[in-house]
Amino acid sequence: MDDLGQLLAGARRAVFFGGAGISTESGIPDFRSAGGLYTTAHDLPYPAEYMLSHECFVETPALFMDFYRQYLVHPQARPNRAHRALAELERRGNLAAVVTQNIDGLHQDAGSRRVIELHGSVHRNHCLGCGRHYGLDAIMQAPGSPPAPPVEP
Ligand SMILES: [Zn+2]
User: Fold this and answer.
1) Which residues have a catalytic role annotated?
2) 8 Å CB contact between 44 and 51
């Protein structure tokens, strides 16, 4: 860790690439570890891999949205020390960007400004029919599920 700290202190173009592990301390379960989604979500009608897939979203949108709201969205989560440290490194000019597989938005909540979200964000949702954008509140409060996406010709 000391060596890493020294490396970062002199860095100008470092990029952090992260995933679920950084948000577990914020109370968001990861996928494959002991307390992760794959082992704790026992009530799923299909394997978690399917529930997480685009296929599930397209084929059974109501099922996907229920799963999404219950297991993938954590509105109560707050950034932890790791998120804050990365934001500080960016402020100091040592970190060029964060690339994340996470969809929780916690890097931005911590103050990171250059965040590349490979899998999107729970905060950015759009209608597949008309493109209209919706925030997380609209998704969480929407009754039932959105209509099935249009079938591509
Ligand atoms: Zn629409």
Assistant:
1) 119
2) yes
Averages of pLDDT over runs of 10 residues in the chain (153 residues) are: 82 93 93 82 86 92 89 94 96 96 97 97 90 89 61 56
85 CA distance to ligand 1 middle (Å): 39
Query: Which ranges constitute the DSSP H helices of 41-80?
Result: 48-51, 54-59, 61-67
Residue ranges and CATH numbers for the domains of the chain are 19-141 (3.30.1600)
Torsion angle of C-alpha atoms 80, 17, 121, 68, degrees rounded to 10:
-80
H/E stretch holding 96? strand 95-100
What does the pLDDT read at residue 126?
87
Query: Do 71 and 60 touch, CB atoms closer than 8 A?
Result: no
CA of 135 to the centre of ligand 1 (A): 14
The model's pTM is 0.84
Tokens describing residue 66: 């229920």
Ion ligand 1, residues whose Cβ is below 5 A away: 127, 129-130, 132
